[in-house]
Amino acid sequence: MVQDDILKVLVTEEEIEQRCVELAEQIEADYQKEGTVPVVVGLLKGSVPFMAELIKRFKFPCEIDFMKVSSYDGTESIGDVRIDLDMQISAKERPILLVEDIVDTGRTLVEVKKMFKNKGATDVKIVSLLDKPDRREFEIEADYVGFTVPNEFVVGYGLDYNQKYRNLPFIGVLKPEIYE
Ligand code: XMP
Ligand code: MG
Question: Phosphoribosyltransferase domain location, by residue (predicted)?
Fold first, then answer.
């Protein structure tokens, strides 16, 4: 069982569900105040379980879509984000709510946010299940955060190690021998 590879659980399924109720209420209040209909965009693949848990609690009108991006390190100039799979709905003149699994260095979200502004989005907000502030290199904060996690590699609830463990219903840390 994949559960056997887990050293410790950081966030339980119940804690995630409860937090999604709170986040959904907060997000709903903000969009109702603005009176706008956002496009909720999940960043594949890590956001899928969190996105599902969150949006089923929204009682305000919204549209949903997905996209897959890779931001790359090294020689590429900042401002580059490769779109592996684009969304279907146009972002032009729309408020966007980006759904992400984790904000780590911040590179991905800095790039994606810039890209949405270039596409003509009127507003870009970010909701992330996890935040790992100790790793931040780029100046960005999610508007809504589920849980702050320590500087450890985490898996589960969408987050993977070599594409595995996304299906775990909790957030956990892998046993060291799994990496070796
Ligand atoms: P940046 O650095 O752009 O990274 O904020 C965001 C992406 O990096 C991945 N990431 C992780 N994936 N466990 C994972 O399974 C982690 O602890 C972790 N930290 C970063 C993730 O894909 C995220 O979208
Ligand atoms: Mg990701």
Answer: 14-161
Domains of the chain, by residue range, sit at: 2-71+78-163
Tokens at residue 52, please?
């599902």
For 81-105, the pLDDT digits (tens) are 789 999 999 999 999 999 999 999 9
Place of tokens 């009682």: 59
- 18 sits in which H/E element: helix 13-34
Regarding the domain delimited by 2-71+78-163, which CATH topology (the fold level of the hierarchy) does it fall under? Rossmann fold (3.40.50)
pLDDT (tens digit per residue) in 17-50 = 999 999 999 999 999 999 999 999 999 999 999 9
Q: Is the pLDDT of residue 75 over 50?
A: no
Backbone angles phi, psi at 37, to 5 degrees: -110, 100
Q: 141 near 123, Cβ under 8 Å?
A: no
Specify whether the CB–CB gap between 8 and 167 falls below 8 A.
no
Which of 159, 162, 168, 173 to probe ligand 1 with, by most ligand atoms within 8 A of CB?
A: 159
For residue 99, how far is its CA from the centre of ligand 2 (angstroms)? 10
Instruction: List residues bridging with 97 in a β-sheet.
Output: 40, 125
CA 100 to ligand 2 centroid distance, Å: 7
